[in-house]
Design a protein that fits this description.
single chain; 7 helices; ArsR-like_HTH; Arc Repressor Mutant, subunit A; about 180 residues; globular; three-stranded antiparallel beta sheet; 5 strands; two-stranded antiparallel ribbon; mainly alpha
Length: about 180
Amino acid sequence: MATTHSASANSDDADARQLSAGRALASPLRLRILRFCLYDAHTNREIAEEFGLNVGTSLHHVRTLVDNGFLVAEETRTGRRGAREIPYRATGLSWSTRIDGQGALVIRTFLEEVDGLDLDEQFMVRMGFKLTPERLEELQNRLVEVIHEYHESPDDDGTRHGLFLSVHPEGHRSSRTESGSE
């Protein structure tokens, strides 16, 4: 009996952690904070300045991300006027965390990230394909492989760039009907 209770408690704990992680990541702002802290650790003050937040609001978001393992505190340092500051760095845990509504969230985050950029100056590609399921899977795997190659070997003297990629069925009715879905 104790084993069943223990297994049930562990399952409940895992469900609670997943729910908490989902809530922590269900914000375009928090996803943008994670991206900001990906290569360089930043203090709460720096995060607040980057996103135009007051320090208290920023601290709420930072604590939520820390509590769920998405940000980790690094060694305390001395900041302006001798104040003690804690820099935070993204852990990468968010990349493997699945949440409900993830697709729409990623698109909203992308739109916030490019807001204010001269979009005519950005590299963009929009293209259609007609592929078998096997070739589609091959394309997706190759894209992921190339993306991971560049992500995992950042240039120390490089500038930061973002990437948004979506492979999706074309939206017009005849394409959806041909594949058997509507």
